[in-house]
Design goal:
Elements (H helix, E strand, L loop, with lengths): L1 H12 L1 H4 L3 H11 L16 H6 L13 H5 L4 E5 L11 H7 L3 E5 L14 E2 L6 H9 L3 H15 L2 H7 L1 H18 L1
Length: 185
């Protein structure tokens, strides 16, 4: 009981806990489980109690994969659900889908469209329900899908992508951190 009260207190104080998306991820998995071509990859999902309760996952669970981009490239869409919906928290998920030429269906950073062009991903927040999202993806025309993929490829080939997510800004983060550490010693 004490642990539960502590967890609730942390959630109330810490924005990372308040914005966790595991609950949304599980609801999304339930909604997408009704799609026959939906596959789930990742270590230990088959041991998750809620996934076991669904029952329909038996035999349809993936496992960890050796080459994520090659696996994602087999799919028209990739669910990219972050661990938290915290402003500025944007992980590799969306970019992995883009590099695999799969349309990212993104849920996470509320400021994502200020960093990534909105025309390269499906924003899951734009739908009233997960069922509406599933139906929208099912009914997406080939032309509309091609538009997302073309926009994604153009973005990955752009100077804006390189300036924000290329190797130079990545290295700059580490160099800046080292310099700050050296200045405080």
């Amino acid at each position: 009981m004490e642990h539960d009260a502590r967890s609730l207190a942390l959630r109330a104080l810490d924005p990372w806990f308040r914005t966790e998306l595991i609950t949304f991820r599980l609801r999304a998995l339930e909604a997408f489980a009704r799609v026959p071509t939906f596959d789930l990859y990742g270590a230990n999902w088959d041991q998750h109690e809620r996934i076991q309760q669904l029952g329909i996952w038996r035999g349809r669970l993936g496992s960890t994969i050796a080459d994520k981009r090659r696996a994602l490239a087999r799919y028209k869409f990739t669910l990219c659900i972050e661990n938290t919906a915290f402003p500025g928290y944007l992980t590799e998920k969306l970019h992995d889908a883009l590099h695999a030429n799969s349309i990212p269906v993104y849920y996470g950073d509320p400021l994502v469209a200020s960093r990534i062009p909105a025309e390269v991903f499906v924003d899951a927040r734009a739908f009233a329900s997960l069922d509406d999202l599933v139906e929208s993806l099912r009914s997406m025309s080939e032309r509309e899908g091609r538009g997302y993929l073309d926009a994604g490829r153009a973005y990955l080939d752009s100077a804006a992508y390189e300036e924000a997510f290329g190797i130079d800004p990545y290295v700059r983060v580490f160099v800046d951190a080292i310099e700050r550490t050296n200045n405080t010693l």
